[in-house]
Amino acid sequence: DGDFADWDNLEGVVVCKSDPDATKQGLLEMRVYADEVFMNVLLEFNPDIVTERTAATENPVSLWLSTSKDAGGYNMWSDLCIEYMLQGWCFNGDSYDTWTAGMYMWAGEVHAEGWTWESVLEDVAAESAGAGDKIEIRMMMDLLAGVMEFGDVFYIGADVQQAWDAVGQLPNAAITEENMSGAAEMLEVAIVK
């Protein structure tokens, strides 16, 4: 509904903030709440980095999902590989359009880095509302469960792109000698029952 204050009173919300030393700072915060009916995601963009907010297709906002730590798929986070990608568009100048996304399943080799995705849903029926530098997205779990097999938890990450360049990613981490790629673990979300 675009009123972000209601997130403060929800029990079971998982919060991820950007590591100030990470390289991809376009997303400042992600909050996720999931129950048996809806998955809700709140994203906060960094206005100094996410400056191109036209409705152009080269500026997507994507959510990356895995159902277990044993899942194999696209290699982007440090702890597991991604099974599913929801890629959509929401920017419309100073306002937001409804986040219109397609859902894709990884169809390549396990732990590969190519771009081998297979469309599984052309239109993820999502509700969204945005204001300022934030957008909240709500999807029906039944719709996602028609493609994915959810247990008690799932794993999620997000990114925002500008001209097809990922400028923000959550979770993120600083590049160190021990972590040369700057990869972080995906955010674990327990489904509230």
Account of the protein in words:
The protein is mostly beta strands. The chain has one helix at 141-145; strands at 14-17, 27-34, 38-45, 61-66, 84-92, 95-106, 117-124, 126-131, 134-140, 153-162, 165-170, 187-190. The strands form two sheets. Strands 4, 5, 6, 7, 10, 11 and 12 form a seven-stranded antiparallel β-sheet that branches. Strands 1-2-3-9-8 form a five-stranded antiparallel β-sheet. Strand 2 (27-34) and strand 3 form a beta hairpin.
Quick tags:
single chain, 193 residues, 7-stranded antiparallel beta sheet, 5-stranded antiparallel beta sheet, 1 helix
Number of helices: 1
Q: Percent of residues in helical segments? A: under 10%
* Average pLDDT: 88
Q: Which blocks of ≥5 consecutive residues have pLDDT under 50?
A: none
Rg over CA atoms, rounded to whole Å, is 16 Å
Describe the sheet with the most strands: 7 strands, antiparallel
> Rough shape?
globular
- Sheet-strand content, in percent, reads over 45%
Structural class determined from secondary elements:
mainly beta
Number of strands: 12
